[in-house]
Structures are given as C-alpha cells and as structure tokens.
Amino acid sequence: MTVGRDYMLRKGDGPSSPKFFLDTQLVPRLVDAAGSAEVTLDRAARAAGVRPSLLLAGAAGTLAMATTATLRALLKKRRARHTRADAAAEPRKVGNESVATL
C-alpha cells in the first residue's frame, strides 16, 4: 500500500459502529465500575484501619486459593471418572485365561 500526500488530510465518515459502541457504551461502564470498586476499597480500608494495598492483596490471595481449590476438585473428579472407565474396559482374568468383558 502506498501512502499519498493527502492520506492524513482525508477525513472518514466517522468511527465504525463497533468502535462507536465501545467508546460510548462499554468504556464508560467499565470506568464507572472501576471507580466504584476504588471507592469501596478506600472505605473498607478506612473502616479496617489498614492500607488499601493490604486489603487488595488479601482479596487477590483469597481468590487465587479459591480458584486453585476449585480446579483441583474438578481435575480430581475428571481423573476418577477416567479411572472408572479404564477399570471397566480392562479384561478380567478367569483362571489362566483372559476374558474380555463388554
């Protein structure tokens, strides 16, 4: 693509509809949510008498521990399910012969 002399002088019709939605709907809501979270954190820090960074670190640590425990439980269930399926698919021995079960 070659850039002509008037490349920066041409004005488009405006932003695309996804960018317009992002700029007018999504970004203001995210900024409002972040602001309210900041105010809530500040109020909780004042009430507890600790720095906001300590509360934020504690919340992040709690969230990380809860996520780890949930993932471990899900993986344990998945492994147990596969173990049962593998055990059911193994052939059983009857005497000296191996008999496959269906």
How far do the termini sit from each other? 65 Å
Mean pLDDT across every amino acid position: 84
Shape: flat
The helix content is: 55-70%
Architecture overview:
By secondary structure, the chain is mainly alpha-helical. It contains two helices and two strands. It has a two-stranded antiparallel sheet. The longest helix is centred in the last third of the chain and has 38 residues, at 52-89. The chain is flat and about 90 Å long. The termini are far apart.
Can you lay out the helices and strands and say which pair or pack?
Elements (H helix, E strand, L loop, with lengths): L16 H32 L3 H38 L2 E3 L2 E3 L3
Antiparallel strand pairs: 1-2
Short description:
This protein has 102 residues and is mostly helical. It has helices at residues 17-48, 52-89, and strands at residues 92-94, 97-99.
Give structural attributes.
single chain; 102 residues; 2 helices
